[in-house]
Model the fold of this input.
Amino acid sequence: MTVPDARGYRSFADLAAAQHRGRDFEIEIRRRPSSPVAVVAPHGGRIEDGTSEIARAIAADDLNLYLLEGLRPSLNYRALHLTSHCFDEPECLELLRHCPFVVAIHGCAGRDQRVLLGGLDVALKERIAAALAAASLVAFGDDHAFPGLRPDNVCNRGARGQGVQIEITHPLRRSIEAVRFAAAVRGALLEVAARHAVDAGADRLTHAARADRR
Ligand SMILES: [Zn+2]
Done:
């Protein structure tokens, strides 16, 4: 049997028509409704090796997590790599709709340990870059092949229409440094989540005060 070529997929429906959920791929969602953050690995499992593990480590048990994982014995990338701006899997979009902060974890080629940051959420990107620098990890914020600036890129489909795309080379994904990497990204996300909670609380107080004056 010939293996379908994912480069021809224009949507999740194309992928689902060619590959079987439960056999070729699986979707895992961990909803943490009290968190404003979602961690997404759209090419998890055997599609981009190591990205599921890193996404899980970042999300731990308190951030929203979405994984689409390749389970095939071979040719996972070829058959299951639905490109990021076509990634419209409905359960994923439903989760992201409620999350103002989104990071998508990907694997890219490269012989050294490096991280390429993209996406439309410039502030979060800078915060993550600072956290990685503090952990002595090399991250590039621009001038690379994965800017992730399309609004339909899955990283930018959260509640604010902007997120961060993180591409990680294989040597980093499979090294002990991956633990430090995940901890640094998680730290940055917990910071923005905490600030978001404070801002939301201040908003509620302002609204309450206005309502009182009426
Ligand atoms: Zn990817």
Summary: The mean pLDDT is 95. The CA atoms of residues 80 and 134 lie 35 Å apart. The helical segments are 12-18, 51-59, 76-80, 90-97, 122-134, 170-173, 177-213. The longest helix spans residues 177-213.
